[in-house]
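Annex B, item 7. Sequence and structure tokens for protein A, then protein B.
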Amino acid sequence: PAAARQLACLPWRARENERVRRALLWVAILLSLSLLLFWAWRSSIERTDSRYDAQIRMASQRYGVDPLLIRSVIWEETRFRPNKVGHVGELGLMQVRPTTALDWARSEKRMDFRPEQLADPEIGILAGSWYLARALRHWQNTDNPYVFALAEYNAGRRNAVRWVDPANPRSGRAFLSRIDFPKTREYVCQILDRFALYRGRMPWTSSCASLFSRSGGMGKKRAGADVAAGPRGSGRAAARPETVAK
């Protein structure tokens, strides 16, 4: 009887094994397609987002800023459109205010500089990278200068100083949780996500994701704090909530 039962089970086991093989085959096919789509997507990003890499490398070498961070800021600010003009007069790929650009020109002894030259990709990237480098130097003794510097780039030094946690002044996590302009928080996280992507990582490995879960509470919106005085592109959040030096 036992042998008979085993013989009776053979067709069922064969069918079950065939189902398992087919399921594994489909899993392998889906994984392969996913990888192909991912690499095609990455290739398209490189094609569209690398058009100003020569100017970015020049600014990176001059001011000591990671070129992929510069590229990430450009992506967030203008999606690589050099002629974009912000709502309060920001110009160029990195959306630099004319007053800040004049500070950059004085520091570089460019006496013939005119703000409209920010539409030139090379000039716009140099001026924005100079400002970003200055912010990174100011916050270099924190545990994550990128978080502090990007918030300053978006909302100005005065606001960034206000968001420092007196009990933990070097903590990027504490700083991020105290930002009471939701669009500035989103701005910082969007850039850090893109920075992670450019470095070959996935966005959930970015500094922002590791510092603080955006699904959790990140501070309450203060009345009047989210008045956008700056550009806001398709699908992104960028704000200059007050009149700032940038």
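Protein B:
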Amino acid sequence: VFRHRYRSRRLPAGLLLWQAIAQSAALMNARPPSRFRLFLRWLLAPLLIMYGKRKPEHLHALRFHRFETEDDVEEVDRQMIADGLAQARSVSARGNAAATMYNEFVDEQSRGLVDLVGTFLLRAMKDPDAPAAVHRIVEKQWSLVWPGVRDQLYWDLAASMQLLDEEAAFFRSLRLRHWKAQHPPVWPARRHCPTPLTALRARLRYAVFPADSHQADVAIAAWLGANLISWGEICNWASLLHFLFTDRTDEYQLVNYIIFSKICHFVAFGLIPGVQALLAYFDCTMLDVGDAHPCHETTTQSPVSATFELLRVALAAFAFLLLRTSSSGGDAHVARLELARLGLAQGSHSATGISKIAAGPDGSAPLPARRGGAVLCGVVLLDAVVFALCFGVGFSHFCRRRRDVDCAQVDCSIFYDWEEGSSLQRWPHEVAARWLQAHGLGHLVRDWLYDQRFWAYMDFAQTCYSLMLFPYVLLGLPPCKAFLTHARRTGYDKAGRLCWALSNQQMLERSSMLHSFAVQDRAATRMQAFSRGAAARGAAGTPSSASRTSPARRAQERGTERGWRGWRGAAGDANV
């Protein structure tokens, strides 16, 4: 039967003989503890060889012809382990290659979809009836705006479809952690004097422009109310306070100050006074003129308001000058802010990861270090032209109307009744009058500063100029501010330090993360309290266990103990 099976497998005759000789030599040279095992291998070698003829991979994996000593067995085991690790690595490499190919395919398809959306939007924005010059302007502005929108869409798609690599996902999750949990104290522990201004500035910064969370509803209402109420010049004081506590070296903070100040200017001194002026003009036309001028009290302008108006315009111009000359922004700037917040060193591996996150999904074409406001520059230039136009036209109209009235023939005392006002309202014009008289321009004091028509002209110019600030309202919308100014959003932590602000989605993720941490902390606190209570009860259980035992149980235990003692005594007497 063996010969028949041997011949049926068509093995060479010399192979079996060589295997027997090799195993016999190994048996003679082997050490005593391994002779029995090698003898069994010598008996089973022909069967294994024939079995290996059908499955050569098993014969190659087992290598029976090398089992000569125990050292060879260990070597074969190590070789099998190495082969298994190599196969596992190859399988892992093939899996990673497949995952990479899938990610590349999905990324390519998503990019094509986003580009298709951009092409559709550009076609929709072009008016077929508009001239070619308008089409060129639209295409130029689109080329400036669309790259930022496209990169943001790429990033959101990659994050939502989990196409980010593990390192990018780790650094993205790191942005949600390690934020300051407390405000700075009024009196620091290592200071000999209190720092109330620093503590107040930190609290005000975080309340108005937080970087790690949304603004509270109360803070939003209070801040908007302070910037929109013109009574008592509250809005101008709020604008001055905003300029003082903001970080004037950051691009986004300066852009935000200019846009927000102009929007509040549009509402507080444009819309509201415009409606008031229309109502006052309607009342004025309904009155009988008689001997008195019916409209001499309709103007709301005063020397104090004019002074604050000029101060407000000057602060906005100074902020724009700082924006164009000494501000910092862009991807590198926000990456430095994030490294400073996390306490990481420049040039480290973590710095590279944070820079990659700041540069967006591509990272190949990061924004320059300073953008300078982008579209905001054109809006500010238009603002300057409108300011000169409103005040220039208003002043020329004032001079022309003033020449038309001859005060030698007409009583003009009605235009100078405002001199009887309070000293608080008159101090700016008194300072200006002294300055004009000191420089030989005393005739202008009577002609301008004491003339009610001059302040009516100032009121008209201010209202017209404020109404022309409507482009800032459009620029202040969140999408327009982000993609037209190219300023990376920044904010402040609870310590009052400038930081790279989180997006809305990241703020929601951080709030849910903090909620889960709070739930875990409460559960851990309950478990710790339970463990301490159990330990305390265990420590106090030995002396107080008798006091907690019922009287019936204690009587039963005493009876059992007495019975046991009596039985032991009787047994002792019997033994004696």
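Comment on protein B: DSSP finds 23 helices and two strands in the chain.
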